[in-house]
Amino acid sequence: MKNQMHVTATRHFQRSSRPTCPSHQSVDLLWIPITAVTRHVRRQPYRDTEPMASLFTKLINGEIPAERIYETDHELAFLDINPKSRGHTLVVPKLEVASFHELPPDAACSLVVTLQKVAAGIVRAMGTTHYNVVLNNGAIAGQIVFHVHFHIIPRYEEADRSRGRGLGDSETLETVGEEIRRALEHLEAG
Ligand code: 5GP
Fold first, then answer.
1. What average pLDDT does the segment 87-107 reach?
2. Which residues are catalytic, by number?
């Protein structure tokens, strides 16, 4: 009886607490007038010229090279150019918004779902279940690139895997990127 109650309560908990990700359709609608949204969200005064694309928008558009590891219609994940550990990854919405709290709920939801998927790929590829998920919001909080992004920073016991030189070498980034891409393909296939 006690067990039965537990099962019922758990089911109820799962049902009522499962987040409902709004459909992506409204993200698509928002994504089309991206410069208009950006201007509004950043509260920039009206200018005759379009605002400059953020560093990460340029990277998303392929104007800046990056070790890209996962992409959806709405997000891109790529390795940080200055990694704090092997596998340090950034997950970025394609919608160019500076602050997390200003992202439309659809885009925030989709971003977190992708964040979790990429984290699973990193866990599989890097062989550690230890990692930090970090979002720096605002300059005082350490944000340098004003386009929302989550960091996934794997953590290892051995000091040489979390520190040391060479982590940002293009060869190392390429190797790590390939390992994570393969792990994600494996997860998607399975
Ligand atoms: P923030 O302090 O804004 O949260 O972090 C920005 C991150 O972007 C930093 O960790 C930095 O190393 C990374 N970053 C800056 N420029 C580039 C770039 O051109 N390519 C890549 N892959 N990462 C970058």
1. 97
2. 149
Position 147 in a domain: yes
Residue closest by Cα to atom 13 of ligand 1: 80
Crossing angle of helices 105-126 and 170-189, rounded to 10°: 100
Overall domain count for the chain: 1
Tell me whether residue 90 is in a domain.
yes
Domain CATH for 165? 3.30.428.10
The answer to whether residue 16 sits within a structural domain is: no
Can you tell me which atom of ligand 1 is nearest the CA of 142? Answer: 2
State which residues form the domain around 121. 22-189
DSSP 30-85: HHTTHHHHHHHHTTPPP-SSPPPPPHHHHHHTTSS---EEEE-SSEEEEE-SS-SS
Q: pLDDT for 54-85, tens place per residue?
A: 999 999 999 999 999 999 999 999 999 999 99
Q: Which atom of ligand 1 is nearest to the CA of 78?
A: 22
What's the CA gap between 114 and 164, in Å, rounded? Answer: 29
Q: Average of pLDDT values for 140-165?
A: 84
pTM beyond 0.90: the answer is: no
Query: Rounded to an integer, what distance in angstroms lies between the CA atom of residue 155 and that of residue 132?
Result: 7
